[in-house]
Amino acid sequence: MSTSAAAQHAPGRAPGEGAAARARGLTKAYGAGETAVLALDSVDVDIARGRFTAVMGPSGSGKSTLMHCLAGLDTVSAGQVWLGETEITGLRERELTRLRRDRIGFMFQSFNLIPTLTAAENITLPMDIAGRRPDQAWLDQVIDTLGIRGRLGHRPSQLSGGQQQRVACARALASRPELIFADEPTGNLDSRAGLEVLGILRGAVDDLGQTVVMVTHDPGAAAHSDMVLFLADGRIVDELARPTAERVLERMKRFDGERTRRLDDTRGTRAARED
Ligand SMILES: Nc1ncnc2c1ncn2[C@@H]1O[C@H](COP(=O)(O)OP(=O)(O)OP(=O)(O)O)[C@@H](O)[C@H]1O
Protein backbone atom coordinates (compact mmCIF):
# COMPACT_ATOMS: atom_id res chain seq x y z
CA MET A 1 0.00 0.00 0.00
CA SER A 2 1.15 3.56 -0.50
CA THR A 3 1.96 4.90 2.91
CA SER A 4 2.27 8.44 1.66
CA ALA A 5 -1.28 8.47 0.36
CA ALA A 6 -2.65 6.80 3.47
CA ALA A 7 -0.68 9.06 5.81
CA GLN A 8 -2.34 12.15 4.34
CA HIS A 9 -5.64 10.99 5.74
CA ALA A 10 -4.32 9.30 8.84
CA PRO A 11 -5.84 10.38 12.14
CA GLY A 12 -2.32 10.50 13.57
CA ARG A 13 -1.44 13.45 11.38
CA ALA A 14 -2.02 17.02 12.44
CA PRO A 15 -4.04 18.67 9.65
CA GLY A 16 -2.57 21.64 7.87
CA GLU A 17 0.98 21.02 9.02
CA GLY A 18 3.72 19.80 6.72
CA ALA A 19 5.54 16.57 7.32
CA ALA A 20 8.55 16.75 9.64
CA ALA A 21 10.32 14.37 7.26
CA ARG A 22 9.37 12.49 4.14
CA ALA A 23 10.83 10.10 1.65
CA ARG A 24 9.87 9.18 -1.89
CA GLY A 25 11.17 6.09 -3.66
CA LEU A 26 13.77 5.67 -0.92
CA THR A 27 15.97 2.76 -1.89
CA LYS A 28 19.06 1.54 -0.14
CA ALA A 29 21.22 -1.35 -1.31
CA TYR A 30 24.28 -2.60 0.51
CA GLY A 31 27.02 -4.32 -1.48
CA ALA A 32 26.89 -5.25 -5.14
CA GLY A 33 26.35 -8.21 -7.42
CA GLU A 34 25.47 -11.59 -5.91
CA THR A 35 25.89 -10.41 -2.33
CA ALA A 36 23.85 -7.20 -2.70
CA VAL A 37 21.17 -6.67 -0.05
CA LEU A 38 18.18 -4.44 -0.76
CA ALA A 39 17.63 -2.98 2.72
CA LEU A 40 14.98 -0.45 1.55
CA ASP A 41 12.89 -1.01 -1.54
CA SER A 42 11.35 2.22 -2.86
CA VAL A 43 9.82 3.44 0.39
CA ASP A 44 7.36 6.36 0.40
CA VAL A 45 6.73 7.74 3.87
CA ASP A 46 5.56 10.91 5.61
CA ILE A 47 6.53 11.51 9.23
CA ALA A 48 3.81 13.68 10.79
CA ARG A 49 4.98 16.78 12.61
CA GLY A 50 4.23 16.99 16.33
CA ARG A 51 3.43 13.27 16.51
CA PHE A 52 5.01 10.14 17.90
CA THR A 53 5.67 7.56 15.17
CA ALA A 54 6.89 4.01 15.88
CA VAL A 55 8.65 1.86 13.29
CA MET A 56 8.33 -1.90 13.73
CA GLY A 57 9.20 -5.00 11.76
CA PRO A 58 11.19 -8.22 11.95
CA SER A 59 14.95 -8.23 12.38
CA GLY A 60 16.58 -7.21 9.10
CA SER A 61 13.41 -5.56 7.71
CA GLY A 62 15.18 -2.20 7.32
CA LYS A 63 14.10 -0.21 10.40
CA SER A 64 17.53 1.13 11.31
CA THR A 65 18.39 1.76 7.68
CA LEU A 66 15.18 3.78 7.26
CA MET A 67 16.00 5.82 10.36
CA HIS A 68 19.58 6.40 9.25
CA CYS A 69 18.52 7.50 5.77
CA LEU A 70 15.80 9.85 7.12
CA ALA A 71 18.34 11.33 9.55
CA GLY A 72 21.03 11.84 6.92
CA LEU A 73 23.34 9.39 8.68
CA ASP A 74 23.50 7.17 5.63
CA THR A 75 23.48 7.86 1.89
CA VAL A 76 20.63 6.53 -0.25
CA SER A 77 20.97 4.42 -3.41
CA ALA A 78 17.93 6.03 -5.05
CA GLY A 79 15.01 8.27 -4.15
CA GLN A 80 14.67 11.49 -2.19
CA VAL A 81 14.49 12.43 1.48
CA TRP A 82 13.38 15.76 2.97
CA LEU A 83 13.72 17.12 6.49
CA GLY A 84 10.93 19.68 6.63
CA GLU A 85 11.29 21.56 3.36
CA THR A 86 15.01 20.77 2.97
CA GLU A 87 15.91 18.01 0.58
CA ILE A 88 18.78 16.21 2.28
CA THR A 89 19.59 13.76 -0.49
CA GLY A 90 22.40 15.35 -2.42
CA LEU A 91 23.69 17.48 0.46
CA ARG A 92 27.42 17.36 1.05
CA GLU A 93 28.74 15.65 4.20
CA ARG A 94 29.57 18.95 5.83
CA GLU A 95 26.05 20.32 5.25
CA LEU A 96 24.59 17.05 6.52
CA THR A 97 26.69 17.24 9.69
CA ARG A 98 25.41 20.75 10.34
CA LEU A 99 21.82 19.76 9.59
CA ARG A 100 21.99 16.77 11.96
CA ARG A 101 23.57 18.90 14.66
CA ASP A 102 21.11 21.78 14.37
CA ARG A 103 17.85 20.09 13.48
CA ILE A 104 17.84 16.47 14.68
CA GLY A 105 18.11 14.83 18.10
CA PHE A 106 19.22 11.24 18.59
CA MET A 107 18.59 8.68 21.32
CA PHE A 108 20.18 5.26 21.17
CA GLN A 109 19.72 2.04 23.10
CA SER A 110 23.23 2.39 24.49
CA PHE A 111 22.67 6.01 25.69
CA ASN A 112 26.06 7.13 24.20
CA LEU A 113 26.92 9.40 27.12
CA ILE A 114 30.51 10.55 27.64
CA PRO A 115 31.67 8.88 30.89
CA THR A 116 34.03 11.67 32.00
CA LEU A 117 31.42 14.42 31.70
CA THR A 118 28.66 15.24 34.16
CA ALA A 119 25.01 14.86 33.19
CA ALA A 120 24.76 18.63 32.66
CA GLU A 121 27.85 18.64 30.42
CA ASN A 122 26.56 15.67 28.44
CA ILE A 123 23.24 17.40 27.87
CA THR A 124 24.77 20.54 26.39
CA LEU A 125 27.73 18.86 24.65
CA PRO A 126 26.29 18.91 21.09
CA MET A 127 25.45 22.60 21.47
CA ASP A 128 28.85 23.36 23.01
CA ILE A 129 30.55 21.68 20.05
CA ALA A 130 28.39 23.71 17.69
CA GLY A 131 29.25 26.90 19.62
CA ARG A 132 25.57 27.50 20.31
CA ARG A 133 24.21 28.87 23.55
CA PRO A 134 21.41 26.78 25.01
CA ASP A 135 18.06 28.46 25.56
CA GLN A 136 18.19 28.32 29.36
CA ALA A 137 14.43 28.56 29.90
CA TRP A 138 13.86 25.63 27.51
CA LEU A 139 16.68 23.64 29.07
CA ASP A 140 15.20 24.19 32.54
CA GLN A 141 11.82 23.03 31.29
CA VAL A 142 13.35 19.87 29.77
CA ILE A 143 15.38 19.12 32.91
CA ASP A 144 12.37 19.56 35.17
CA THR A 145 10.06 17.60 32.89
CA LEU A 146 12.56 14.73 32.96
CA GLY A 147 13.09 15.06 36.73
CA ILE A 148 16.90 15.06 36.57
CA ARG A 149 17.69 18.40 38.23
CA GLY A 150 19.14 16.63 41.28
CA ARG A 151 21.43 14.54 39.09
CA LEU A 152 23.04 17.19 36.92
CA GLY A 153 26.43 17.05 38.68
CA HIS A 154 26.68 13.25 38.46
CA ARG A 155 28.69 11.31 35.90
CA PRO A 156 26.93 8.53 33.92
CA SER A 157 28.45 5.76 36.10
CA GLN A 158 26.75 7.35 39.13
CA LEU A 159 23.33 7.16 37.46
CA SER A 160 20.89 4.27 37.01
CA GLY A 161 20.12 3.04 33.48
CA GLY A 162 16.81 4.90 33.49
CA GLN A 163 18.48 8.10 34.66
CA GLN A 164 21.16 7.76 31.99
CA GLN A 165 18.48 7.37 29.34
CA ARG A 166 16.70 10.45 30.70
CA VAL A 167 19.96 12.41 30.38
CA ALA A 168 20.28 11.09 26.80
CA CYS A 169 16.70 12.22 26.23
CA ALA A 170 17.48 15.69 27.62
CA ARG A 171 20.51 15.88 25.32
CA ALA A 172 18.30 15.00 22.34
CA LEU A 173 15.77 17.67 23.35
CA ALA A 174 18.23 20.40 24.42
CA SER A 175 18.57 22.10 21.06
CA ARG A 176 14.81 21.86 20.43
CA PRO A 177 15.30 19.78 17.28
CA GLU A 178 12.68 19.48 14.58
CA LEU A 179 12.81 15.72 14.85
CA ILE A 180 14.02 13.20 17.42
CA PHE A 181 15.05 9.72 16.30
CA ALA A 182 15.08 7.08 19.02
CA ASP A 183 16.54 3.67 18.15
CA GLU A 184 15.29 1.08 20.67
CA PRO A 185 15.47 3.65 23.50
CA THR A 186 14.03 1.17 26.02
CA GLY A 187 16.07 -1.84 24.84
CA ASN A 188 18.57 -1.69 27.71
CA LEU A 189 16.13 -0.79 30.47
CA ASP A 190 13.99 -2.79 32.87
CA SER A 191 10.28 -2.48 32.26
CA ARG A 192 9.72 0.26 34.85
CA ALA A 193 12.55 2.47 33.54
CA GLY A 194 11.43 1.68 29.99
CA LEU A 195 7.91 2.87 30.79
CA GLU A 196 9.33 6.06 32.26
CA VAL A 197 11.30 6.80 29.10
CA LEU A 198 8.25 6.12 26.93
CA GLY A 199 6.23 8.46 29.13
CA ILE A 200 8.92 11.09 28.64
CA LEU A 201 8.90 10.74 24.86
CA ARG A 202 5.10 10.90 24.93
CA GLY A 203 5.33 14.03 27.09
CA ALA A 204 7.90 15.57 24.72
CA VAL A 205 5.31 15.24 21.95
CA ASP A 206 2.22 16.25 23.95
CA ASP A 207 3.66 18.93 26.22
CA LEU A 208 6.66 20.25 24.28
CA GLY A 209 5.34 19.81 20.72
CA GLN A 210 8.25 17.62 19.60
CA THR A 211 8.20 15.12 16.74
CA VAL A 212 9.53 11.67 17.64
CA VAL A 213 10.31 8.62 15.49
CA MET A 214 11.09 5.49 17.48
CA VAL A 215 12.35 2.14 16.21
CA THR A 216 11.24 -0.68 18.48
CA HIS A 217 10.65 -4.44 18.63
CA ASP A 218 8.28 -4.11 21.56
CA PRO A 219 4.51 -3.88 20.88
CA GLY A 220 4.07 -2.40 24.38
CA ALA A 221 6.50 0.40 23.53
CA ALA A 222 4.87 0.99 20.13
CA ALA A 223 1.52 1.36 21.90
CA HIS A 224 2.75 4.70 23.30
CA SER A 225 2.97 6.15 19.79
CA ASP A 226 0.31 7.81 17.64
CA MET A 227 1.08 5.77 14.54
CA VAL A 228 2.94 2.53 13.91
CA LEU A 229 4.62 1.89 10.55
CA PHE A 230 5.29 -1.77 9.80
CA LEU A 231 8.30 -2.68 7.69
CA ALA A 232 8.91 -6.05 6.03
CA ASP A 233 11.67 -6.86 3.55
CA GLY A 234 12.54 -3.20 3.07
CA ARG A 235 8.98 -2.02 2.36
CA ILE A 236 6.33 -0.33 4.46
CA VAL A 237 3.58 -2.93 4.43
CA ASP A 238 1.07 -1.37 6.80
CA GLU A 239 0.38 1.32 9.35
CA LEU A 240 -1.75 1.46 12.47
CA ALA A 241 -3.11 4.64 14.05
CA ARG A 242 -3.88 4.86 17.77
CA PRO A 243 -2.20 1.53 18.44
CA THR A 244 -2.68 -0.74 21.41
CA ALA A 245 -0.17 -3.47 22.29
CA GLU A 246 -2.76 -6.14 21.41
CA ARG A 247 -3.50 -4.68 17.97
CA VAL A 248 0.21 -4.27 17.21
CA LEU A 249 0.89 -7.87 18.24
CA GLU A 250 -2.02 -9.12 16.16
CA ARG A 251 -0.69 -7.28 13.05
CA MET A 252 2.81 -8.63 13.64
CA LYS A 253 1.50 -12.19 13.85
CA ARG A 254 -0.46 -11.67 10.64
CA PHE A 255 2.65 -10.42 8.80
CA ASP A 256 4.69 -13.35 10.13
CA GLY A 257 2.03 -15.75 8.83
CA GLU A 258 1.89 -14.04 5.42
CA ARG A 259 5.68 -14.00 5.18
CA THR A 260 5.97 -17.70 6.04
CA ARG A 261 3.31 -18.49 3.44
CA ARG A 262 5.16 -16.40 0.81
CA LEU A 263 8.44 -18.14 1.61
CA ASP A 264 6.73 -21.55 1.47
CA ASP A 265 5.20 -20.62 -1.91
CA THR A 266 8.62 -19.56 -3.23
CA ARG A 267 10.20 -22.78 -2.00
CA GLY A 268 7.33 -24.81 -3.45
CA THR A 269 7.72 -23.11 -6.84
CA ARG A 270 11.47 -23.65 -6.77
CA ALA A 271 11.09 -27.33 -5.78
CA ALA A 272 8.50 -27.86 -8.54
CA ARG A 273 10.89 -26.26 -11.06
CA GLU A 274 13.72 -28.52 -9.95
CA ASP A 275 11.58 -31.69 -10.20
N1 LIG B 1 26.40 -1.89 6.54
C1 LIG B 1 25.73 -2.89 6.01
N2 LIG B 1 26.28 -3.69 5.07
C2 LIG B 1 25.60 -4.70 4.50
N3 LIG B 1 24.34 -5.01 4.80
C3 LIG B 1 23.73 -4.26 5.72
C4 LIG B 1 24.37 -3.18 6.39
N4 LIG B 1 23.49 -2.62 7.27
C5 LIG B 1 22.35 -3.33 7.17
N5 LIG B 1 22.49 -4.31 6.25
C6 LIG B 1 21.43 -5.26 5.83
O1 LIG B 1 20.29 -4.52 5.48
C7 LIG B 1 19.10 -5.16 5.94
C8 LIG B 1 18.33 -4.21 6.84
O2 LIG B 1 19.09 -3.97 8.03
P1 LIG B 1 18.57 -3.06 9.22
O3 LIG B 1 19.68 -2.99 10.23
O4 LIG B 1 18.06 -1.78 8.68
O5 LIG B 1 17.35 -3.92 9.78
P2 LIG B 1 16.54 -3.75 11.14
O6 LIG B 1 15.11 -3.94 10.79
O7 LIG B 1 16.92 -2.49 11.82
O8 LIG B 1 17.08 -5.02 11.95
P3 LIG B 1 17.19 -5.27 13.53
O9 LIG B 1 15.79 -5.27 14.06
O10 LIG B 1 17.82 -6.63 13.60
O11 LIG B 1 18.06 -4.19 14.10
C9 LIG B 1 19.57 -6.44 6.63
O12 LIG B 1 19.45 -7.50 5.71
C10 LIG B 1 20.99 -6.16 6.97
O13 LIG B 1 21.74 -7.35 7.02
Automatic annotation (TrEMBL):
Matches recorded under InterPro entries: AAA+_ATPase, ABC_transporter-like_ATP-bd, ABC_transpr_LolD-like, MacB-like_ATP-bd, P-loop_NTPase
Q: Does the keyword Transmembrane apply?
A: no
Pfam families (alphabetical): ABC_tran
Q: Which GO molecular function, any one, fits this protein according to its record?
A: transmembrane transporter activity
**Annotated stretches, region: Disordered:** 1-20
Q: Where is the ABC transporter domain?
A: 21-258
UniProt entry keywords in alphabetical sequence = ATP-binding, Nucleotide-binding, Transport
Q: Which Gene3D superfamilies match?
A: P-loop containing nucleotide triphosphate hydrolases (3.40.50.300)
Record field: transmembrane: none
Which ranges are annotated Low complexity under compositional bias?
10-20
Q: Name one GO cellular component term.
A: membrane protein complex
How is this protein named in the record?
ABC transporter
